[in-house]
Write a structure and sequence with these properties.
By secondary structure, the protein is mainly alpha-helical. The chain is built from 10 helices and no strands. Helix 5 packs across helix 10. The termini are far apart.
Length: 206
């Protein structure tokens, strides 16, 4: 794609382009994805694709941004703060683990990490829409339980990051390095329960 105007433009076939790009990026990676293939899979002309995204990096960034946004909103919409603290943390842990173990998310994560050094804007946007957004949302949930006197937290950003990292124990590395895509419910429960127990041991009010 040519470098030029860096603004994303929208039109009636915008979603088609996004879906086509999503499929091709996941199959061929960032470098392997061609404009011809994206346009073909999306069912649009190259001219239409160029009119929406003048740079392939912008298209890739938009695909990653949308995926992060959809998944974050999906979890947020189902969080029930009337749950007990343990039940809320267990729900959040299981949801994180489901996200982390999806093959699509693992491939997208790998691509964003791989391109971050060459294209810093890709890494920055993924960080903003992914880890940073997750930290903010988890922190907002935790504050509710602090207000109820059930948690003792001073640094909400650190606590939120720690909770997310606890949910990555074991299964994320197996997915990334061993290409394992299937995990049993028992394996997921083990990690989720361990994350909740560790977090409560550190921040729970005795």
């Amino acid at each position: 794609m040519p470098d030029g105007d860096q603004d994303i433009k929208r039109g009636r076939k915008f979603e088609q382009v996004i879906e086509g790009a999503r499929e091709v990026f996941l199959k061929d990676g960032f470098d392997g994805a061609s404009v011809d293939d994206i346009a073909k899979v999306a069912g649009v002309s190259k001219a239409t694709l160029y009119s929406y995204f003048p740079d392939k990096r912008l298209l890739f960034m938009e695909v990653a941004r949308i995926e992060c946004q959809v998944q974050a909103e999906n979890i947020s919409s189902r969080v029930d703060l009337s749950l007990s603290l343990r039940d809320m943390l267990t729900f959040a842990a299981r949801e994180f683990i489901e996200i982390l173990t999806r093959p699509f998310n693992r491939r997208m994560y790998r691509m964003c990490v791989a391109e971050a050094e060459r294209f810093p804007a890709v890494g920055e946007q993924f960080y903003t829409c992914g880890p940073a957004n997750a930290r903010m949302k988890i922190g907002s949930f935790l504050k509710k339980y602090v207000e109820r006197g059930e948690l003792d937290i001073e640094d909400f950003d650190l606590a939120a990051d720690q909770f997310e990292v606890l949910c990555k124990a074991d299964i994320v590395d197996r997915g990334l390095f061993l290409n394992q895509s299937e995990f049993t419910e028992a394996e997921k429960k083990r990690v989720a329960d361990g994350a909740v127990e560790m977090f409560l041991a550190r921040y729970g009010v005795k």
